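Technical annex B. To support the medicinal chemistry partners, we prepared a structural model of the target in complex with arginine, based solely on the information shown next.
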Amino acid sequence: MPEPRRGSQDDPATVRMWGGRFRGELDPMVAAFTTSLPFDHRLYRADILGSIAHATMLGRRGIIPADEAERIVGGLREILAEVDAGLLKIAAAEDIHTFVESALRTRLGEAAGRLHTARSRNDQVATDLRIYLKGEIVKIVGRTVALQQVLLSVAEAHPSVLIPGYTHLQRAQPVLLAHHLLAYVWMLGRDVGRFRDAFARIDVLPLGAAALAGTSYPIDPHMVAGLLGFSRVAENSLDATADRDFAAEFVMAAALLMTHLSRLAGEIVLWATAEFGFVELLDTISTGSSIMPQKKNPDAAELIRGKSSRVLGDLVTVVAMLRGLPLAYNSDMQEDKEAVFDAVDTVNASLQVMGILLHGIRVNADRITSSLRGGFMGATEVADALARRGMPFRDAHELVGRLVLYAQERGRELWELSLEEYRQFSPLLDVEIIQATTPAGTAASKRSPGGTAPERVQEQIQAVRETITESLSWLAGLPAIPVERDAAPSAQPSNRRSPER
Ligand code: ARG
């Protein structure tokens, strides 16, 4: 293999690994435009670990001399340790793959050139991204479950606080605060499920597909899969190198997670207004105004809401990039990375900040309780009772509408009217029904599965705990993901299947 050609010395990004058939230097503008090193440097661990596994396999299969394979693996380990320790700076290459190879060449000379046997950057980059995303999913799932636990603890700290439940942002029917918060816990649980589903499809090794067609070398991708902790090996070399649906799927899961965080953040913003006053944000999670001295702003919550739009944009970027591409690899696919990395960063930060926000919120139960007045949220109870006692529901609806008007004109609640007053509207009404119009009575009657009655909410808490335990045991049962710092590639057999779900 010829020595890599060096581009102009003052533009390190033009160091090339493919100089043989070229005359003249790469234009510096083109070099700067085509380099991915400024962002794909974060794949260095995945790339080096992938190369260690690949070189190990090449040596064991006798595709390259065993002693050279060992030197390559040793050199790669050194590079990894030096980059980890900040001793080796990632620079002066077209992308992370060429950087690692040229760093190896600096150490080993000619022998480094054997690493790229039976491999292309096309299967290499797909492998790197999959290794990277598996590691990120583990982190994101861990953080999402942690957030579920925080929400659960807030719910359990206020077991009997009732809030107005809203539709159209108009007070509708009272619900337990815990019930409202648990709705988000379930949403996050489905987000965990989506990341786990994505993980199962990401957990496939593309290495061995080479540029697009496979390779004539007697490689053993199953061995590589085992070394890298992949459950399966790609079945089609074109598919392996040309698709990024796994990246799109990851970003989709991230976009939906952010959508849920955004809605929760939006409610925090609303609840922290003077008009609502349901919660107070501690000073440690609030920010001020440069002009209005009295202001205390929920910036962090607003930004979680705002940043959800970035991740939706990231999803559009990945899918739009893929949709017109002929098989197999195209350079357009390099554009997946910044979108994926942005989604990773945004989700990780948002999950952590949301956890901090929830710890820094004080529930104003008095204010919430006073908001239960004036909304006539028990009206449906009266209509339901009349219907149960034989009145057609439409007639009952009409009658209770008049009852609400009557109470409203007198500035009283439905539960503050006397039996005599109720009887003026219908002889079917009694004291039991009056009681049922209180917020507690209304909520207690919602005993249907998944309803807001306290005993149903207790059941939900139990059920959600089980899902959390299940997610944690999924995390605990995963083989060590080699991309995590200080974890060497495991020597696990490759016949492991990812967990069923
Ligand atoms: N930097 C490239 C990417 O991110 C790596 C693969 C390049 N392969 C190629 N044949 N140019 O997709």
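Notes passed to the chemistry partners:
Residues 36, 40, 95, 121-122, 125, 329, 331, 333-334, 337 surround arginine (CB under 6 Å).
The chain has 19 helices and six strands.
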